[in-house]
Amino acid sequence: MRQSSPAKPVRESLQRPKGTQDATPADVIAWQQLESTVHRVMRASGYGEIRTPILEHTELFLRGVGETTDIVNKEMYTFEKGDRSLTLRPEGTAGVVRAFIENGLSRLAKPVRLYYTGPMFRYERPQAGRLRQFHQVGVEQFGLDTPASDFELLTIAMVLLQQLGLTGLTLQLNNLGTASDRESFKHELKATLRPVLADFCPTCQTRFESNPLRILDCKVPTCQTIVKSPLLADLLAAEYASPESQAHFQQVCDMLSQVGITYTRNRQLVRGLDYYSGLVFEIAATDGQLGAQNVVCGGGRYNSLVEQLGGPQTPAVGFAFGVERLLSLLPAPTPVVVDAYVVTDNPARWHTAIENWRHVHGLTVVVDISGKGFGKQLQAADKCGARYAVIAGDAEWDSQTLALKAMQTGQQQMVPLAEVPLRLLAVD
Ligand code: HAM
């Protein structure tokens, strides 16, 4: 994304807020290409798009994302309106689950396959790859708790990224087990960490009581050193998930291997949201300029969330990827080419013909509407990078023959009106 400084200095209060970005038309080409690939892949896989409000009641995120998470504790944009507390959504899953329940989608044949795109808001410290307003593409699948449903979701994540043209990605998986598996693991983890608690960062010291699993994926170097030390080695190497949960996870891994998707098991991967159980995963970029913020996609299973938010017991699994992070890894797209720049002092007269070139023949045609002389209009044709200038003056109208000037070579030829689109379509 081009984030150049403004051409003229703008008062700070009139600049875009910190951690947000503008996308100019040159940037938007890449967004549109990404979005059309997403729609194509999701449609081909039987997923339907869902659109939910950017604003939700704050309580949805308190109950959905979890009161002990960083997102809810520190990062939400929350405000009061009347007697209601509203929040700009920090992520998409909670809103989709609410909509799934509220619109009776739970009565549809299972699984219900949904996806969404749109802006999310988190009040985080901005840095490369970390924004306060960013965009996600998310996929959620409701109603099944089978290894095949995890497998479908993981393959969709990988295929989407591959179809977008991304390479150099790593997939990390973990199995959090059931909620009760997690409780007994938390208990043992706390017992092991208690003697060295003072050596952890202040955030982890608070997490010790509220959300001890998050200590495992804290990025602070001193915390990482302790987590990777022999102190935790035995605990992390042991399987704490129940035999059924382990068997489910193993089947997912086997299916991935069967189709040649490589992955690593990362037992420290717990993810930052409270709703997960069973499978969790992240996909990270190994190269590019994202540095510490190299996770492009994250997700997992959340079998209790629908019920927790008032719906019927419904297992679910999903993921989301960060659009800005992905775009920063992709090569710049080719700009839109203007096929014809119409040099004219009478746009209305040529309107029907021009609309025919545009909408019957699919050409990109720009009409000069400046009212300037033809010399200046030809300069404008050059400036906008048009392939051809089409000179459409009085003489051309009388003869119904137009002058086509190839802007690269400067060569000009007279072409009957009816043949103009074919000539414009011809490859130079
Ligand atoms: P998440 O890991 O919080 O998961 O976010 C998913 C992705 O959004 C991240 O991997 C990252 O690429 C992008 N992202 C997150 N925060 C930022 C930021 N501040 N700036 C730029 N990009 C960011 C979720 O949001 C879950 N709702 C995913 C999910 C769906 N799980 C199940 N279903």
Q: Outline of this structure?
A:
The protein is α+β, with helices and mostly antiparallel strands. It has 16 helices and 16 strands.
Question: What would you note in describing this structure?
Answer:
- 38% of the residues lie in helices and 21% in strands.
- The chain has 16 helices and 16 strands.
- It has helices spanning 25-44, 58-64, 70-74, 93-102, 147-163, 179-193, 202-210, 221-228, 230-237, 243-258, 305-308, 323-329, 347-359, 374-383, 394-399, 420-425; strands spanning 48-49, 55-57, 77-81, 84-88, 112-121, 133-142, 169-175, 264-265, 279-285, 295-301, 316-322, 340-344, 365-367, 388-392, 401-406, 412-416.
- The chain has an 8-stranded mixed sheet with strand order 1-5-6-11-10-9-7-8.
- The longest helix is centred in the first third of the chain and has 20 residues, at 25-44.
- 33% of the residues are buried.
- Histidyl-adenosine monophosphate binds next to strand 6, strand 10, strand 11 and helix 12.
- The number of E-state strands comes to 16
Proportion in helices: 25-40%
> Helical stretch count?
16
Sheet of most strands: 8 strands, mixed
Bound molecules: histidyl-adenosine monophosphate
